[in-house]
């Protein structure tokens, strides 16, 4: 297991979200029982950096289908109007928030929030997403429970294990052993007991890369799930709005990137 990311500076942090009771005091309908059960299994983590409107849409659309699932909202040093939205939403029931005084990177921000998770699973969600329908958390948890070697579920890509570049972006034809199964954190479920034994999410454009490589070495599974049938990835988030995304209109060949772009996943 590698070293944790550098110590981050927290400006403000709310109290942990309350844990729902394991048994309801009054009989409830089957649909409510299902929601109560999933709220005891999963915590959602979302990281914001200067994306107020995207954060609002991502949060509201998720809450439409999962009103009782605990949510931890992280502001990654925005210092703009979105920061106040994080505090406002983070103070609501079932929610909590963390504010940083600078952008420490998407991976370390997720890692810091995951340290507060008390449920068996964590679901990471990007701000540039919109939840279209429910039922996916229940299906993902059911699949997790059916396989004790299963670590991560979501949008799975095969990426270069050293650079994070997706296989389809390579101009050459490298051997298959060069790639690792990568479950993208834009909308993914991870098993907490396994996460704590692996390399934490890190600071570059493929924040789960070292984590996935270590999971593979441990014989853990990272599998695809049809999450895009439920959650739309808008691809208009922080990296596109504030730089860092590989520019397909440039003359730079696929599989390579300008220095300022770093990792283009």
Describe this structure in words.
This protein is an alpha/beta fold and 265 residues long. The protein has a single domain, classed as Alpha-Beta Complex (Spore Coat Polysaccharide Biosynthesis Protein SpsA, Chain A), CATH 3.90.550. The protein is 28% helix and 24% strand. The protein has eight helices and ten strands. The strands form two sheets. It has an eight-stranded mixed beta sheet with strand order 1-4-3-2-5-8-7-9, sandwiched between helices. Strands 6-10 form a two-stranded antiparallel ribbon. α2 (52-65) runs parallel beside α3 (81-90).
CATH level-two architecture? Alpha-Beta Complex
Strands across the major sheet, in which order?
Answer: 1-4-3-2-5-8-7-9
Query: How would a crystallographer describe the biggest sheet?
Result: 8 strands, mixed
* Rounded Rg: 18 Å
Order of helices and strands: EHEHEHEHEEHEEHHEEH
Number of domains: 1
Q: In the CATH scheme, what's the topology name? A: Spore Coat Polysaccharide Biosynthesis Protein SpsA, Chain A
| Oligomer category | single chain
Detail the topology: elements first, then pairings.
Blueprint: E1 10-13, H1 30-41, E2 42-48, H2 52-65, E3 70-76, H3 81-90, E4 95-100, H4 106-114, E5 121-125, E6 129-131, H5 136-145, E7 150-160, E8 179-191, H6 192-195, H7 209-217, E9 221-224, E10 231-233, H8 238-242
Parallel strand pairs: 2-3, 2-5, 3-4, 7-9
Antiparallel strand pairs: 1-4, 5-8, 6-10, 7-8
């Amino acid at each position: 297991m590698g070293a944790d990311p550098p110590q981050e500076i927290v400006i403000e942090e709310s109290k942990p979200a309350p844990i729902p009771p394991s048994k309801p005091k009054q009989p409830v309908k089957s649909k409510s029982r299902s929601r109560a059960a999933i709220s005891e299994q999963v915590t959602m983590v979302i990281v914001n950096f200067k994306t107020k409107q995207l954060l609002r849409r991502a949060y509201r659309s998720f809450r439409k289908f999962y009103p009782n699932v605990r949510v931890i909202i992280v502001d990654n040093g925005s210092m703009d109007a979105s920061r106040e939205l994080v505090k406002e939403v983070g103070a609501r029931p079932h929610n909590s928030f963390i504010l940083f005084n600078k952008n420490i990177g998407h991976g370390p921000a997720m890692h810091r929030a995951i340290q507060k998770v008390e449920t068996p699973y964590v679901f990471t969600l990007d701000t540039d997403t919109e939840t279209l329908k429910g039922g996916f958390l229940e299906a993902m948890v059911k699949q997790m429970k059916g396989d004790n070697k299963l670590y991560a579920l979501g949008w799975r890509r095969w990426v270069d294990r050293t650079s994070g570049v997706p296989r389809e972006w390579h101009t050459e034809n490298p051997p298959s052993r060069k790639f690792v199964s990568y479950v993208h954190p834009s909308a993914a479920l991870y098993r907490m007991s396994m996460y704590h034994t692996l390399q934490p999410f890190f600071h570059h454009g493929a924040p789960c890369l070292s984590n996935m490589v270590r999971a593979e070495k441990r014989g853990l599974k990272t599998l695809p799930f049809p999450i895009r049938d439920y959650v739309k990835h808008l691809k208009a988030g922080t990296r596109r709005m504030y730089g860092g995304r590989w520019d397909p209109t440039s003359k730079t060949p696929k599989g390579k990137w300008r220095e300022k772009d770093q990792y283009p996943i």
